[in-house]
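Predict structure. Chain length: 270.
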Amino acid sequence: MQSEDKFFFSGDSGIFFYAQYDEHKLTRVLTMKRSISTTLSGLCLLFLAYGSFSQAADFNSLNIMTEEFNPYNYTENGELTGKAVDLLIAASSAVGKPIAKEKITVAAWARAYKTALSGPNVLLFSTTRTEERESLFKWAGPLGGNRTVVWAKKSSNIEKFDDVSQTKEKIVVIRDDVGEQLVLSAGTPEGMVTQISKSENAAKMLISGRAKLWGYDEGSALTILEGLGENPADYEVVNVVKATELYFAFSTDVDDSIVQLLQKGIDEVR
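Prediction complete.
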């Protein structure tokens, strides 16, 4: 086959060019050109996907909520502080997406919990991760351990017991708190559980004798009692309900990339 001199038009470049070719060589050239074009298209899609991931993985869209839960998250001298607050700020900064304290809303636990359940775009902390809650949220953490116990005043002379479901006194709990959920899931009759909205009010009920038992986090309960001027030595744990861990909980509509980004930050600062 003889070579021929011809003009060709390139649709990709939009220009004419002159070439001497034979048909076999031209076929190879065109095949190589299509292969390069396909590779470049793939790379473009990859960069677009990466750009979309980077854009999605941002905390600005989140409604971040917490409660008064010393020592993890609490207000002191008008400023939000605590172990979980510090970890959130450090972890978000470590991945280049710093969260400002001003973005965090402090609310009663029951309201914050229901907001996180319904969404959209909610981050709630510090949240105890349990089997019952596992599918209700997406998780990043852990923040630390906690132990749900039942407190009593020593002067009430209540004997320690192993099975919380066999309590002979009503237990005051915080509505939608893990203490309430664990006490009830252990088989405690609902009639033996008193629900209120704030932990400080539960402590006051225990102090005044209006409640004989309080189901709550062990460390936080002591901190609250001390803050109310009580001597921790006057109180004792009469039942250990369960040991668990605290996490950052996201409403299920939050993009996985955001959850993964915070988890990455937590892992980096630990």
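Summary: The helical segments are 23-56, 83-94, 109-118, 178-185, 199-208, 218-227, 256-269.
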